[in-house]
Structure prediction request, 290 residues.
Amino acid sequence: MPSVKEVWQKLVKDLKGHSCSSPTREARLLLASILEVEPSRVYLLWDEELPEEKLTRLQTLQKERRRGVPIQYLTGEWDFLSLPFRLKRGVFIPRLDTESWVEEAILYFRSLEKEKITICDMACGSGVIGISCAFWVENLYLYGVDISPQAVELARENARLLGVEQRSIFLLSDLFTTFSTLPPPQFDAILSNPPYIREEDWDFLPPEVKLYEPKEALVAGEEGLDIIERILQEGEPFLKEGGLFFLEHDPHQKEAIEKLADTFSLEYLRSIPDLTGKERASIIQKRRKK
Prediction:
């Protein structure tokens, strides 16, 4: 039987041959998944032999990766803000760009001198945004909402695995619809990484995205603003005075979102850059009554 090192070397070579952008990292992640260890521990098993059944399983994943199946779906796990989250096919894959503004939101929540902070993660997907906030802010209580039953189930699982399920509620809903049947919560903040891609841009996305990720989690009408507009309009009544929206968007949508905020009598505060310096998210405030 081949050693882990020998298998890794062949896997890296194969992934390079199929134009994989990070072959060494992906080879390590796939092996870690097969070996059921942390990726950082793969090198400690360098000289161990890889059993036949694990090699067969690895070869299956390797074939799927060649076809373009995202690595996140193959490993079933992905880190967000240094926390491990479960992922499943059919649920949106979190991006690194999102970490920059969620980290800023966490710092804001930690600065609040309040006994209890209540937030809503709207269109929560796997729950990475709201659950990360709850994990790093111990007096924070989370409502997570998504229209996908699969996403809501996965978010509940992630909340349980990361130990915040006692401070989390996940609801199946078309945005704020479900809140009309509940005692209306009042949030200190509403956070969202909603669909914001323009319909005409869908065909130009990489095959990895188009073939495997849910279109409804990415595309939002002709200008990509359909869901963002609804979140601002429908979410405003559920936000406390002075409460904040943290919204991710395409950098080119910033000015349009400023206008939407003004339309709904909200105050646009500022944008938050992503790791490349592009305006990736906006902070919008519900005005306080005079």
